């Protein structure tokens, strides 16, 4: 008998697209799945839309929670799931028709793999036939492709995220091992979850098959993001990276030293970028920036940023 795949779908006011997402699941070539939609306190027509699908197909269930964020919703969905394999899926995104079939076969053939992940494509909601390998639509595929565990994967995840959330298929046990998604994370919950899996020994494998892809929708809800708040979330995550590396029993002392140095360098570069591009007369922005580092570091970068902006202004005036 084929293994059950649990598809966990958090949704907050995505009634305008979730019908397409659920129709997409009904069109999957793999049929032994359950879909758990977790409504994160929506005020739109999500309940009505999902309710129609749940009434027609017993594989689809609907849970409502008060608005608590996407990580809480994913974790709640996981608690209600029964699958051997787990597929996370945002309420506005889609899966290629063969994705579940191909990844289940891949996981069965590679028992050492805890997390298999696929390629992805982005599309604008009003132009679904035009796809891009990157969110910025610059035809740049940022996806790192690894088949490893331990140091190599941790090192990859220090530099950048490894996959969009709907790309991987996971064995149930690895999610249980890391206690699900970090509910305190701010804008980096997916990236931090993959990092936690890696620092706990998860073996990642890229499933290189063009027929297995996830399709990420670009629309008004996910383009209106506060970049500075996202960057602040990354800086806070990088602090937790350092703690996790120091506490790791997976890594050797030499590996820890290398990873800590690289994380510190990335942290420094990000904070410098944030300060140099901040509005230095905005009290709100300065409060955010001051809260991310100690006062001495903040003052040092503040005056460096002033000097940078002074030089840039002088060049323009010449």
Helices and strands in order, then pairings?
Elements: E1 5-11, H1 18-26, E2 33-40, H2 46-56, E3 60-65, H3 70-79, E4 85-88, E5 94-95, H4 99-109, E6 115-117, E7 119-124, E8 127-132, E9 147-148, H5 151-159, E10 169-171, H6 172-177, H7 189-199, E11 204-206, E12 213-218, H8 220-223, H9 227-247, H10 253-276, H11 283-290, H12 295-317
Parallel strand pairs: 1-2, 1-4, 2-3, 6-11, 7-12
Antiparallel strand pairs: 4-10, 5-12, 6-10, 7-8, 9-11
Helix pairs in contact: 5-7, 5-10, 7-9, 9-10, 10-12
Structural notes for this entry:
It is built from twelve helices and twelve strands. With 318 residues, it is an alpha/beta fold. It has two domains: 5-223, Spore Coat Polysaccharide Biosynthesis Protein SpsA, Chain A, CATH 3.90.550; 227-317, no CATH class. The strands form two sheets. It has an eight-stranded mixed β-sheet, sandwiched between helices. A four-stranded mixed β-sheet has the order 5-12-7-8. The longest helix has 24 residues, at 253-276.
Short characterization:
The protein is an alpha/beta fold and about 325 residues long. The chain has twelve helices and twelve strands. It has two domains: about 5-225, Spore Coat Polysaccharide Biosynthesis Protein SpsA, Chain A (Alpha-Beta Complex); about 225-315, no CATH class.
